[in-house]
Amino acid sequence: MNRQIGDIEALGVNEIAYKRGHRYLTLVYQIDEGRRRLLYVARDRTEKSLRGFFKTIPKSSLASLKFICTDMWRRYMNVIAECAADAVHVFDRFHVMKKMNEKINKVRAEESRQLKSQGKGELLKHSRWCLLKRRENLSEKQAVKMSELLKTNLRCVKAYMMREDFQRFWMYSSPAWAGKFLDQWCTRAMRSKIEPMKEMAGTLRRHRPILLNWFRARGEISNGSVEGMNIKAKLAIGKAFGFKSYETIEIALYHQLGKLPEPNQTHEFC
């Protein structure tokens, strides 16, 4: 690719599935305000995949790097700690809540199996999206079902209420108060006896400093910038039609999201 990189203040790192069978790409975006583009594509989602970015991009472009926004993938965290330790590492809010939804769904699935074995399967029938969506996004039918669920003492409903309570974390203006809330929430989750939520609390505790970095970056980077770029990347992959080789998808992604320079000459027809 022949393009000028220039200074970079904020990066977004994420993985995206491009084939069945757990085939992933590592994508690195520039998410500076007013300058959002794809900078790098690599196979898989390993440490080597991301380390290749830091070897490829000129050091002068990274000298101004202030923020890196990622999901909670441990291999990416390892590389960032090694290659960009001076930047403020932030977890993407979307992926934190996505991980929590995965835990809620795990509770729901386990409880649904238990209820079916007791002949009470109707209790959680059609409940998945009621529990995973925010209440304001529920359809009328889902809202009715959710109202019924809230009258029960099911573990998945308790997990749902814990997630709704956790949403308050993002509303704090002070990192100190947010940290206090986080600690209290994790303590309640550990005492809940709901194993997937206890696992979530353990994850949040381990990554407490990075979670609180979110408040240092608020107002500096857009909350939905990485997820917005991911949606565009998925659309670009979809437009590749039946050409699903890595090379074809890489070209499609760079041309649609990389903001490559226009050629100096256009083709002339005789």
From TrEMBL:
Q: Name one Pfam family in it.
A: DDE_Tnp_ISL3
Which InterPro entries does this chain map to? Transpos_ISL3 (IPR047951), Transposase_DDE (IPR002560)
Q: Where is the Transposase IS204/IS1001/IS1096/IS1165 DDE domain?
A: 11-249
Record's superkingdom? Bacteria
Q: What is this protein called?
A: Transposase
Tell me the lineage of the source organism: Bacteria, Pseudomonadati, Planctomycetota, Planctomycetia, Pirellulales
